Amino acid sequence: MKSRSFAAVASLMVLILTTGCWDNEELTGYGFVQAVAIDLTKDGEFQLTTHFYSPTGGAEMRDSEQQKQSGINIQTQGKTIFEAVRDIPIHFGRKAKWDHLRVILLGEQVLRTQGVGAILEYFSRDHEPRGTILPLVTKGPASDYLNIKPYIEHTIGQQLKRMETDGADYAAKTSKIPLFELAIQLKSATGVSTVPYIHHDGGQQDVTVSGIALLKDGKLAKAIVTPKDTQALMMLTNKYKSGILEYPCSDGEGEESFEVLDAATRLSPRVENDQVTVRVKTRIAGAVGELRCSRITKNAEKESLEDRLKRQVERQIRKTLSFLQRERMDALGIGNQVYRKEPALWKQWQPEWGEHFAKIRFHLDVDVQVLNTGMNVGKPFGREDE
Predict the structure, then answer these.
(1) Is the model's pLDDT at 21 over the cut of 80?
(2) pTM, whole model, 2 decimals?
(3) Residue 153: helix, strand or coil by DSSP?
């Protein structure tokens, strides 16, 4: 009898404890964050502009103004990022949910005065934001970019994410650096980090993700890597996936283009007599994109084109190397390799590594292979046979 009573009580307790969601928040209690912009106020506090996904109603609301509004911006401020985050409900009426955060926009001003590690501390420590979030450095106030209307994506946060990822994959004029990779760069021996750069290109609504912002010890450096130099930087860091190489015609009239389908680069530093030399071995394969003045109908013509492409790549790489050495910014991670191979020597060099980097001699070994001429034969379109 007692065993039956005990079984009944136990069953009742199981039912009570396993049913219902008494301790869970409803979806209407959250605001789902798509993007966040971080700036500084005049008083030196953090200004947080949080871009929320705006849920829409049914078909009856399709033409309403509420339906057209794809995102909502809420602005808060605080001495810490966490304080600004916790003040969101007093303006928005919902708690911020960070699981779906796409991008973090960092204003130039805040990065020149605050270390990026301190700024992103909250997003790396809290359990909701993911390590795949994409940080970007903005030209001017970061909050301005969250007022832009997206072209095709539902929110500007999603559009900026696609601009960065697809721009890196298909144009190589920017990079994609997720939060976890930036954390690794910040802990590197050289203290140099690279973050994609976003800026207005013309009108206020015309925004471009191109170029690279350089950070030294977490703070923004003066110089920005241009989109053209970014292509060579992506090659040098072995992150170049696909892009277009433009090269001049042999007669100097006009330019042609070449699509890179595969690229690989290896940097091999060597320390001898307190002097660092680096061998840069780059291998590129691709297809002709446009022929305006060249013909590729014979092996000799193909070899001539490959030689022109090789010289063009060498010029771009040397131009980017000169820029980095002039700025004393080892964005290539050569110092990290020296640290691993020669830790005792690195201990001596680290305080003045920028000066050592500026004196490095680079030896280029570039090879370009033309795989095919595309859909047409190797003659300019519409040209008569000679």
Answers:
(1) no
(2) 0.86
(3) coil
